[in-house]
Amino acid sequence: MKLVAYDVPNISAARNLGIAQAAGDVVAFIDDDAVPEPQWLRYLVAPAAQSDVAAMGGFVRGRNGISYQWKGRSLDRLGIAHDLDLHPEQATVLHPPKGRAIKTEGTNMAFRRSVLVELGGFDPAYHYFLDETDLNMRLGRAGFATALVPLAEVHHGFAANSIRNRERIPKDLFDIGASWAVFMRKHLVEAEWKSQWKRLRSEERRRLLRHLVSGGLDPIGVRHLMKRLDQGFAEGSKREISPERIATHPVQPFQNFPSEKKQSVLIATRPMRFKRDLAQALSRVKKNEIVTLMSLSPDARYHRIMYHSEGIWVQKGGLFGRSVRSDPLICMTTRSRRVERERTRVGKQRGLNEE
What we know:
- This protein is of the alpha+beta class.
- The protein folds into 2 domains: about 10-235, Alpha-Beta Complex (Spore Coat Polysaccharide Biosynthesis Protein SpsA, Chain A), CATH 3.90.550; about 265-350, no CATH class.
- Helices cover about 35% and strands about 20% of the residues.
- Helix 5 (about 175-185) packs parallel to helix 7 (about 220-235).
- The longest helix has 25 residues, at about 190-215.
- About 35% of the residues are buried.
- The mean pLDDT is about 95.
- This is Glycosyl transferase family 2.
């Protein structure tokens, strides 16, 4: 592993430092508040076998470990994302029409290193927010294809930071405003800036008012955040924009590391046996196995999935409870059928279907 010290709050510059160190043909990105499914990287980089694919993006699950935060999306010329209707499992290679791009989520994406070098990597003018959107727009403009890979999944937890708290309530909008200003200067004609900023500002105000109604913000907080948004936009309107240069050759050569195929197992348990079976799961993790521990209670509780600190995938919920949003509130079934259904749902991502 290569570790690079960097303490400046600029995600684009940090990504570029990583690219400079990366010596593989493909560079993958994931956030520090995200956990990948065991087969994530295998699925994510597979489309790179096609010579026309320059970028790859996967799907992102939210805090309950089941509902999707983001799936496949495209970008219009204003940088606004729109949902795509894609095959639920197969990778789709997309060539966006002129003026549009394919969205890759910052917490789950990969690119050919040679293309990142050609395009100058990420633009450090984006300290936070829109960094990958800007790269996506440049990829589309240059005519590169992007593959969206549904089975390349990560679980994204939204850890608290200087921008938001754990409940995703904003703490500061300065960088949001600054990044939108940079984006407009790079991708929109000047005559569009005023109307676009008015629309984006109204959207941010509506978002803050929703938090005000729910009790997450008070009126003073709303006014302060809107002021910071405007200050950020003003600063971003004059922020220096200059192309980054990524070294053609990495700082250090590629470092091989040993890897071996791991067995993936599912242990079905009940609340009364959970502690005992958790101990069994821990012992199997120490044997280098991928372990899913599924605890089904005799009720209709909603299901949740979490990644245990000791390296176990833990799913808890009622035997008759809803896991995916399309399920009925009460799912009448038998225990064996429910276990098999949930096993099938996560099997490919977790390697449960492999011998």
